[in-house]
User: Fold these one by one.
Assistant:
Number 1:
Amino acid sequence: MLPQCAACELPGRRDEARLPAVREDEADGEDLVSRSDKKRARRVREDALSRLTKELVEVSDGTLSRLGLDEGLVDAVRDARLIKSARAKDRQLRVVRGLLRSGEWGAIASRLDTLLLHGKAPPKGLEPSPEEGRARQWAVRLMGEGALALDELLSAHPAADRRHLRDLIRNATHGSPASRKRAEAKLAEVIRLLLR
């Protein structure tokens, strides 16, 4: 005879049977991230890579050579410029994004921003630091992952102001494209100072 559950009066049903089993290896916070949150984080990162790819394709050859990029990346960007067909150009832009994704794209974005802002490449001693590249990647991650990434950043740097960072993240994710770019740069600057 099957045991009866007192709460539901149905034979063979227990309260434990209705609850999903939680395995020990799934108990950490990584599994608490929903698929939609992962998808949003991936989309924000890909949007940042897409903007960087577009900026790289639009700059001149001289500017591109002053960035100090890998030869494969430079060749892929130059190939993308030469292609006239929209479909073929989109495929080539995906190749450039893939090359950026596998490298230090945050540092490349920082060097490009410095070059475009000042009109010339920074001197050898004043090149953007590795923290600037990491700060750019953290900013994109914070915009995509939200609270989980913010908690991770704050656990590593407890002196940071949570409210200020949340406000910067909100400004970087809402508004016009120009204001979002300025807010993203400000967020990256605050994170760079935090990473020192």
Number 2:
Amino acid sequence: MKSGVILAETSFRPDVVKASLEMVDGERLIDRQISEMKKFVQEIVLVTNDPRAFLPVVSKDIRIITVFHKEKGILGALHAGMSLAQHPQVWLGHCDSENVSSKAAKAMDVRLQQTGSAAVVPFFNQTPLPFQGIYQRKQVLETLSESINLHESISFSEWFRQLDWTAFDEMEYHRFQLEFPFKSR
């Protein structure tokens, strides 16, 4: 069983609520993401520091939680989501992601089981895309807790570099007979 965690935290992007409510092809981004996640996960947790903005928007089966460690920014939001997710694997998303695919999530989950990594994330232009990956909840919580308990601040990028993750690049998409959703500009 899997959980979906959607981050909608303003320290990462101040206009996150507005961006997630934007209409794209006649559908709000947040609705698109929730709909696609429901094809693969058994629960969805939405982490935000503005729950009132989402309460009238998302269905009642979506758990809306707030950030425990507000001073830790996106790491605090991720920690809250991972702490309250109920299943061992978590599909992590950001509320304004457009390239969300349950088929890709299923394929990344297969790779996660094969590799034993803490995460499998899309990889494009030599860059990991961590807000669309599949994570081992327990492993991630251990490293997050260590990072959050440090006295000095650590950025999300610094934390992610320490994580044992596997790239899911264009070749992997093709291997699983999936269209590669990312395009060079």
